[in-house]
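stuck on this chain:
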Amino acid sequence: MEPKIVTKPAFKAVGMRYYGKNEKGEIPKLWGEFMNKVSAQGIDEHSLKECYGLMGIMDNEGNFEYIACIPAEKFDGIPENMVKREISQSRYLVFNHVGSLEALHDTFDYIYNKYLPKCEYEVRPNTYHFEFYDERFNDFKEDSEIDIYIPIK
């Protein structure tokens, strides 16, 4: 699995935040709550062209920040229990994941434990890594695709 290298322009995002180890499927639950909140705002989830799963740096105990979010033009009128983030322009290694949610762990394992330790690129510190969901995402069915963006210097 060879990544593409892309430069992604800066963007704003609004979403719901989780912090922990995701040991009990908290992130999929967060997505369910978030999409319910989005629907309550009058946004049809099927009309969304992009969603992001922003991932913060993991601490020594394995805890990390995860934000299920959508792009935002502005930060006015953000619903209660939502957070806002501004992501600066950056270069990324982009890995494609095809298939199930269960296999997503294998993709992350490959990226972080096999590819990154041996590659020529240095991961950019203190920058969100993220999952990118677009029209290729099909609820983690066999043909479902997402991209995983790893910021590099």
